[in-house]
Amino acid sequence: MAVNPFLKKLFIATLLDLSFSLGQGQDLKYTTTFNFNVENDYISIKIRGNDRYYSEGMLLGFTSPVKKKNLFDRIAIASSDNAFRIRSFSLEHQIYTPHHIGNPNLQVGDYPYAALLVANYGNRFLEKDYSFTSTLTLGVQGPAALGYEIQSFLHRKVFGTNIPQGWKHQLPNDLAICYTFAFDKLIYSTSRVEIIGNTELQLGTLHNTFRLGPIFRFGRHYSFFDPCTWLFVRDKSTIKRQLYLTVEPFLKFVQGNSLLEGGPTNSPGRAWGQPESKYYHINRDQMERLVYGYSWALHYVNKWFSITFQEHLQSAEIKGLPAHEYASVKLGIKM
């Protein structure tokens, strides 16, 4: 598919703008952090990986304090001019598969094969006892996201397991656009316990959801609304080590999910229509409108790096299917 030269130049200019901005901070006390996240059911604490549903996820990115605003910073929803502002930029890849990846036949009633490749750009605004986060996600889903190529490589070279056989049935190429807005409010706090209320709204061609639930934090940690929770400090002598547990139950109301239904350009009714029947997808009457679950995570942070292990359990997104469990490992390195 040919790429419009103007769009190509605009994309390159945007990435350059973001990269030059990442190293500049509103407060020289804080520095840039490199982030690397991996999600997979093979690293679940139960050690029973089965490569189904949300099969694999990877993220590479940076976070830094904001000093000079770029275009995306200016259009982000802000709490106030006095808020401490943190910028994030990441590249993310996700893979979804049905239950039996060794089966080359179409598995009707199960998850479609789907892949997602996106760039995320976000701003987090920290106030004394609340925060706003806004994130813009842009990318592609379908064969252009290289789901088959990446999963086959991982199975062959890393896990030594079966090569997936059903990617010929995957959802087609489409745009993936989403704007995520989150609000967090302090409910209760002591020196070792913190309870935060969280709400999150997603709108776009990729997801249309509303999520809410509490965040419980136990142990030795900075406040959720302290920049030291999100960034490393240049002066290492002023920082304490953190070791704490978080628990996050949630409810999520789902209006749309293009990784199940197919994207807008393959729908005769555009973004809100049903996809055509020429490829396998999940109809809206097959989707669960209420999804629930929880996650727990153990976090360790010192002066140079942070590491988090997080276990996720989520109810089925498609009627008649079981719940799904997977785990995350998140690494942050001071730059």
Query: What can be said about the biggest beta sheet?
Result: 12 strands, antiparallel, barrel
Can you write the helix and strand succession as a string?
Answer: HEEEHEEEHEEEEEHEEE
**Beta-strand proportion:** over 45%
Q: What is the helix tally?
A: 4
CATH architecture: Beta Barrel
State the low-pLDDT regions, or none: 7-26, 268-275
Number of β-strand runs: 14
The H-level CATH homologous superfamily, spelled out, is Outer membrane protein
- Give the N-terminus to C-terminus distance in angstroms: 38 Å
Arithmetic mean pLDDT: 84
CATH topology: Lipocalin
Helical fraction: 10-25%
User: Radius of gyration, Cα only, in angstroms?
Assistant: 20 Å
Note down, in words, how this protein is organized.
With 335 residues, the protein is mainly β. The protein has a single domain (31-334), classed as Lipocalin. Helix content is 12%, strand content 46%. It has helices at residues 5-22, 71-75, 147-159, 258-261, and strands spanning 30-31, 33-40, 53-65, 84-97, 114-126, 130-141, 174-189, 193-204, 207-220, 232-233, 242-257, 290-301, 305-314, 324-334. The protein has a twelve-stranded antiparallel beta barrel with strand order 2-3-4-5-6-7-8-9-11-12-13-14. Strand 7 (174-189) and strand 8 form a beta hairpin. It is globular and about 60 Å long.
Provide key terms for this protein.
335 residues; mainly beta; Lipocalin; 12-stranded antiparallel barrel; two-stranded antiparallel ribbon; 4 helices; 12% helix; 46% strand; globular
Give a topology summary.
Blueprint: H1 5-22, E1 30-31, E2 33-40, E3 53-65, H2 71-75, E4 84-97, E5 114-126, E6 130-141, H3 147-159, E7 174-189, E8 193-204, E9 207-220, E10 232-233, E11 242-257, H4 258-261, E12 290-301, E13 305-314, E14 324-334
Antiparallel strand pairs: 1-10, 2-3, 2-14, 3-4, 4-5, 5-6, 6-7, 7-8, 8-9, 9-11, 11-12, 12-13, 13-14
